[in-house]
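Sanity check

After download, print the first record. It should look like this:
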Amino acid sequence: MIIDQVKKNYIPRHVAVIMDGNGRWAELHGNDRIYGHRQGVESVRSVVEGAGELGIEFLTLYAFSTENWCRPKEEVDALMSLLVDAIVREVANLNEKNVKMNVIGNIDSFPHEVQLKLKEAIYSTSSNTGLNLILALSYSGRWDILQATRQIIRKALAGEITEEQLDEPFFIDHLSTSVVPDPELLIRTSGEYRISNFLLWQSAYSEFYFTSIFWPDFRKENLFEAIVDFQGRERRFGKTSEQIRS
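Expected structure tokens:
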């Protein structure tokens, strides 16, 4: 079994996933795009379970980007309805598996009902101590950097900080992921080779894993394969191999 190939002493703390290919998967199966999004919920359930089995601390799923608001209104409306239904159905399962849920992104842009269900799910799972599941909703890397910059500018104009205080750690404290380690591994499904405005600052030294599998077909076994691939890489962070090995 593929899970037996995973080195339990070298598990990435944070794995991020761009869940791509729902629409194309649905079209290949003769259905509309929304059918693909519905089937993708089962993939989320499987991957969350697999991440918990491996002891991964943080799992960030790119569920809805700021650019996704530009899709046809009927698809966006259906996605909002699906999101509410999925949250309501999955909270009990998350609690059973000791999963703590959180959200990053411009949540204020969502309909009131969606915001309410998200807040209820976050509160309901807040005491759990296992996997931290982070949903990136109405999120983009550029948005994240801009909102951090705006916070810092406001503090500067109020005289709360000086130029000398602005360094990388200070900037990171204002990102939406300030309490989360950068992802060691970023996975994208569906055969696309780009990161689509996802965790731009945070993925500076992430290892990328691309697979042609469409998201509705992605399961925890595929996550394990990505982890095994990650464990076979040498992460140098600008140093030479000799420096890393010494």
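If your output differs, re-run the checksum step. Summary of this record's structure: The chain has one domain: 11-140+182-230.
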